[in-house]
Structure formats: structure tokens, C-alpha cells
Design brief:
- The chain is an alpha+beta fold and about 350 residues long.
- The chain folds into two domains: about 210 residues, Thrombin, subunit H; about 120 residues, Tetratricopeptide repeat domain (Serine Threonine Protein Phosphatase 5, Tetratricopeptide repeat, Alpha Horseshoe).
- The chain has ten helices and 15 strands.
- α6 packs antiparallel against α7.
- The longest helix is centred in the C-terminal third of the chain and has 14 residues.
């Protein structure tokens, strides 16, 4: 998501906008506001100036005098700076990974503390996460939400969550319940309640292990993985567009192609099941979701879809079996789904919600 070009209004250091996402259940183990306040000083505003004017984004301190942001924030820049504790500090060099949309900035004199680095592969669907970024360019915003899905791409998992963010937050941090950085806020899709995506921090680990190779600040060529079009675009994004457009036969064809290309990815049969259910082919949908669960027993979106389908068809024994299996693996999701099935009302923008 591109940052706003509007001129910034710098906040006082303690001016934080806290958003308690409705999808975060009360009583669940989750990142709290105090954790967000502790992490916020390590999330900085990024200001990039170049041929397109002033671009605003966010960045996270990941090592001594080193900040990660999105390359789409800085790719047109001739100069880049970060704002910390009311001071503007220029970046001296950059290390760009355009394909993953992750750019490291070298900022001499930056005294902000580096955050702990986690891994997106340790996340589980339905678990709470916390996002911090300079939404709108006006100040750091803390937003709590849930992991909606984990999408395999290039050896890691792109994180989809319900932690809302808009312009200016690109390059901000997505943190797990322990306060470790698991993703970098990167883009969102229009038309969805929980379509906020973060590039996995796992892509940074090999670049930080040896010292990065630094280049001068200047315009960058190329596009990020999520900006690709046509067959070069990741399957999960192509599928999301077809699902949003209710193009069910096309989604079924794409899911079949996806399954042939990545036979061990549980998301391919999951999306096939979504397409089959939408076309009234209930047995085919159930078979697809069961196949997804054979590939990954913790792929909760498929189990939730199964429980909903069986309940809707009056197959209460099968619905209970799917619900019990979900509850054993992820108790909070199981409780929420049980309440949903009992009340008949969708429980909100979390995994498996019917279109």
C-alpha cells in the first residue's frame, strides 16, 4: 500500500492512537496496549523525497542503526530520512530486496532499540497479533487483530491479518503475542474486512546474519511480489481476486492448477472447496477441505468451513466432529465457532467465514 504524499504533522512521542480490533476476543492471550507502547519507539516514520515528491511510510529498527521498510516507500527517493524522538536523521545507505519489497536503511546515529525478530512460520491461524505503523502519516497507531491466513510464498508465509492499517503504515511492524516482529506491513486488498498483508520477517534473517551490502540512496528498479500481474502474481492473490469477484468456475480452475504446481500446499484444496461450495457442489467441497486437512491438520480455515457446511446441511454429527477437532487444536476458535453455529450469526472477519 503506497504511503500518502501529504506533508506530515509530527506527533508528540507519547501520542499513540490505539485501536482495539473487534475481531480480538476478550480474555484471549494477546498483545496488550502496554506492549504496544513499549514497542512503539522502535517503529519510526520514514520520509522519502524524490521525483514523485514526499512519500511517507513507516520503518522498524531491526539492528543497530538499521531500519527495515518497504521498498515501494523509498524506490523513487533521492534522499531518505527517519524521524525518532522528534529528530530527523538521514539514511546514509540502503540495501534493497525489491522482489520481497523489503529495504534496509543504514541510519548513523540512530539510538532507537532494535526489536526482537521472530518468525511468521511460528504463527497459527486465529492467534492475536499487533500492528504498529504511522497510519495516515500523523502518528504511530497500534492496532490489534488476528491471523486470518498464512500464505506460502518463496520459502516463507505472507501473513494476512485483521490488524487494520492504511496509507503511511507501509513498512511498519506486525508483532506476535511475545512482542517479536513477525512481519512488515506491506499492502491491503480492497473490498475485504481482513485483507491486510505483511511480508514475513523470515525473508530478513539471511540478510541480517552477515552485514548487509550497502548501496547509495537512489531510485530503485523493479516491483514487489504483490505488485506482479497475470501468471507472475502469487497464486493466493490471484485466488483472492477471483473469490472477491465471485468468479467461482475460474477459481476452481486456478485452484486445480495451484494444486498441481504445489501439491503439498493446503491452501490450494481449501480454495477449491470454496469454489465448489459456492457452486452448490457440497460433497466436492467437503472432499477438498478434507484433503487440505490431510496436508496440514492445523489448516483451521478448512476445518471451520467443514463444520459450517455440515451444520448447514443438517449433518450435526459431522459438524460436531469438525468442531471438536478444531477446539482441541485451537480452543478460542472452537469456542467462537460453536457460538456462531448456535446463534446462526457469522462471528466476524476471521478464517473460514463464508462469502
Amino acid at each position: 500500500m503506497r504511503p500518502s504524499p501529504a506533508a506530515p504533522r509530527l506527533p508528540a512521542p507519547a501520542a499513540l492512537l490505539v485501536v482495539l480490533a473487534a475481531s480480538t476476543p476478550a480474555g484471549a492471550a494477546e498483545p496488550d496496549v502496554a506492549m504496544g507502547m513499549r514497542l512503539a519507539p522502535s517503529v519510526l516514520q520514514v520520509r522519502a523525497t524524490g521525483g514523485t515528491g514526499l512519500q511517507l511510510g513507516s520503518g522498524v529498527v531491526v539492528a543497530r542503526e538499521t531500519v527495515v521498510t518497504n521498498c515501494h516507500v523509498t524506490r523513487s527517493a533521492q534522499t531518505v530520512s527517519v524521524v525518532h524522538a522528534g529528530a530527523t536523521l538521514p539514511a546514509r545507505a540502503q540495501s534493497a530486496d525489491m522482489a520481497h519489497d523489503l529495504c534496509l536503511l543504514q541510519v548513523p546515529g540512530l539510538a532507537a532499540e532494535a526489536v526482537a525478530l521472530g518468525s511468521a512460520s511460528g504463527l497459527v491461524t486465529g492467534r492475536p497479533v499487533l500492528a504498529i505503523g504511522f497510519t495516515g502519516g500523523f502518528g504511530p497507531r497500534i492496532s490489534r487483530g488476528r491471523v486470518v491466513a498464512l500464505h506460502r510464498w518463496d520459502g516463507a508465509h505472507v501473513v494476512q491479518s485483521s490488524t487494520s492499517f492504511t496509507s503511511g503504515a507501509s513498512g511498519g511492524g506486525l508483532f506476535d503475542a511475545d512482542g517479536a516482529l513477525v512481519g512488515v506491513l506491506t499492502f491491503r486488498l480492497r473490498g475485504g474486512e481482513a485483507h491486510y498483508y505483511a511480508a514475513p520477517v523470515d525473508w530478513l534473517h539471511p540478510r541480517l546474519a552477515p552485514p548487509p551490502r550497502w548501496d547509495d540512496i537512489g531510485p530503485l528498479a523493479g516491483r514487489g511480489f504483490w505488485e506482479r500481474r497475470g501468471p507472475a502474481q502469487p497464486m493466493f492473490l490471484r485466488a483472492a481476486a477471483l473469490e472477491h469477484g465471485a468468479q467461482w468456475p475460474a477459481l476452481a480452475r486456478l485452484a486445480a492448477e495451484w494444486a498441481r504446481a504445489a501439491a503439498d500446499d493446503p491452501e490450494a484444496p481449501y480454495m477449491l472447496g470454496v469454489a465448489e461450495e459456492a457452486q452448490g457442489r457440497h460433497e466436492q467441497a467437503a472432499a477438498a477441505w478434507n484433503h487440505s486437512l490431510r496436508l496440514d491438520a492445523d489448516y483451521h480455515r478448512s476445518r471451520m468451513r467443514l463444520a459450517r457446511l455440515h451444520h448447514r446441511l443438517g449433518r450435526e454429527a459431522e459438524a460436531r466432529q469438525a468442531l471438536d477437532a478444531l477446539t482441541r487444536r485451537e480452543p478460542q476458535l472452537g469456542r467462537e465457532l460453536a457460538e456462531e453455529l448456535k446463534s446462526g450469526a457469522p462471528a466476524g472477519p476471521f478464517p473460514g467465514r463464508r462469502p
